[in-house]
Each structure stands twice: as structure tokens, then as C-alpha cells.
Amino acid sequence: MISRPIICTSNTKPGSQDTLLLVLYGANTDLIHSLINFFKDNLISKHGSNLKETLDTITQFAKTGLDYARAAMLILLNVDTSGKRWMCIGSPELNIAPLCKNKAPVFFKALAMDVVPQWQRNEQLSVQQLVNQARSAYLVA
To answer: Domain residue spans in the chain?
Structure first.
């Protein structure tokens, strides 16, 4: 069993955790699906409805299981700059801490340069391997 990592923010309420920690190590599918829809809406509003069919396919893919939902969220987060900003702000009303300002750039760079591209290039890698690589990038960041 993998132990839960400690977040590096200190100015948050006790017990609050950042969104990535909740997604990568938690099982709150409602949160993950709401993030998927949030990122999807951001991308449609920014790029128009020409992406709608592809984004709908990703949303359907996310309903297959927990790791599929995590993978879809990571893929969408990788291309949604508004979503990345939201991750860095957090949501105090939902008791979600912001992603540590030192961790965020390192994680987002690893996601964009290594984690997602490697997974997309290799059809033999599973969604679990994508999630595990994202977990590793999160822990190292």
C-alpha cells in the first residue's frame, strides 16, 4: 500500500488537501467527474464547439471506472490552462487546498513533457500506468 504524501502548503485549514492529492489518491468520483466537466466546459468555451465530440468521448471514457476517470481528468488538465489556475487556487468552501506554489510548475511540466506524451505514444500502456506515472510526478514535484 502506498502511503499518502504530505502536501507542502502550511496556510490551509487543518485536514484540507489539494485537488491532485484527492484525485490521485482518493476515490471521490463525484469530484473527479465534476473536474472533468469543468475542464471540458473551459476547453469548449476557449476553442469552440469543434472539440465537443472529442471531449464527449473522453467524458464517456471517464465513466468506465475510477482510474479511467483519473486518466481523463489528467488528460484534460494537461491542456486546460484555466483548470491549472484553479488547481493553484483551490476551493476553501469545499475544503480543498491550493496546489503548493513550488509543486505546481514542476508537476504541470512533468505532466506536459513526460507523463501524458509517453502514455499517448505507447498504446500498450494502461490507464493505471498513466495514473501511476502522474502519482510519481506529483510525489517528486
So the answer is: 17-140
